[in-house]
Amino acid sequence: MIWELRQLTLFIHILLAITWVGGVFFIGWGVFPVVRKMAFVQQRQLLLALMQWSHKLLTAAGIGVIVTGLLLGTIFGPIENWNNIWKTSYGNIWITAFTTGSLTLLWGMFIGFRQAISVLSNVTLWEQADRGDKKTLYKALSKVAITESVEGVGFIVLIVLMVLL
């Protein structure tokens, strides 16, 4: 019975990880480039609505990944005490993954998302771009892309760590 619960937890962990990582990458690499072909007013409206809607879903998926990861390492895994974390390679990788995942989620929730919403909510930037002055908007969007890339780096680190486990 424990084995079946572990497998179910692992399945949920992987499904939520695909949702979290895939969702963030799809918005950044799939939606954003296509939206740039639209008029600036439409870009802003679509991206603002998408970010506000997807933020809740992707945050919930990220929390689910972290919670199931905790379960997989402790209740369904080899970590039975603090010594297992600090004195085994599995524990070292697991705590690094937990820390990386938590920091990546917090960064996305409180830094990246807020900066993106700030730029998307600044109607003046988008109206100026609509009138031909695109430089300020592009500079602001570049800062958002750089800030959001921290999540991408976190995801890559997590994937590498999961391969090592």
Chart the SSEs and their pairings.
Blueprint: H1 2-35, H2 40-73, H3 82-86, H4 89-121, H5 123-130, H6 135-164
Helix pairs in contact: 1-2, 1-6, 2-4, 4-6
What would the keywords be for this entry?
6 helices; transmembrane; 165 residues; elongated; transmembrane helix; mainly alpha
* Percent helix range: over 70%
Q: Give the percentage of residues in beta strands.
A: under 5%
* N-to-C span: 23 Å
Q: How many E-type strands?
A: 0
Helix and strand string, N-terminal first?
HHHHHH
Work out the count of structural domains. 1
Provide a short characterization of the protein structure:
This is Copper resistance protein D domain-containing protein. The protein is mainly α and 165 residues long. It has helices at 2-35, 40-73, 82-86, 89-121, 123-130, 135-164.
Description:
The protein is an all-alpha fold. It has helices at 2-35, 40-73, 82-86, 89-121, 123-130, 135-164. Helix 1 packs antiparallel against helix 6 (135-164), helix 2 runs antiparallel to helix 4 and helix 4 runs antiparallel to helix 6 (135-164). The two termini are 23 Å apart. The chain crosses the membrane at residues 12-36, 57-79, 91-113, 144-164. It comes from Lentibacillus cibarius. This is Copper resistance protein D domain-containing protein. Keywords: Membrane, Transmembrane, Transmembrane helix.
